[in-house]
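Attaching the record inline, Q. Sequence:
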Amino acid sequence: MTVVSGSLIVIGHFGHWYISLPVYLGPALAIVLWLWLGDRRARARAATGGSSDTDGASTGVGRAARTAASDR
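Structure, as predicted:
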């Protein structure tokens, strides 16, 4: 009888935290997913040897530095 009532208590409390789970866990999972994808993209870029741009254009920071250097 104790085992049955103990498992019913666990199942009974499931509804209390199940409702708020997406509210608290959703943003945390989104941040973890964003960081994981960023790391994966960085590793893929490093494996290919640089920028992932197909036309050879550099990032905005490098372009700004080149423009500033050529304006001197």
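The radius of gyration is 25 Å. Residues 2-51 form one domain.

More tomorrow.
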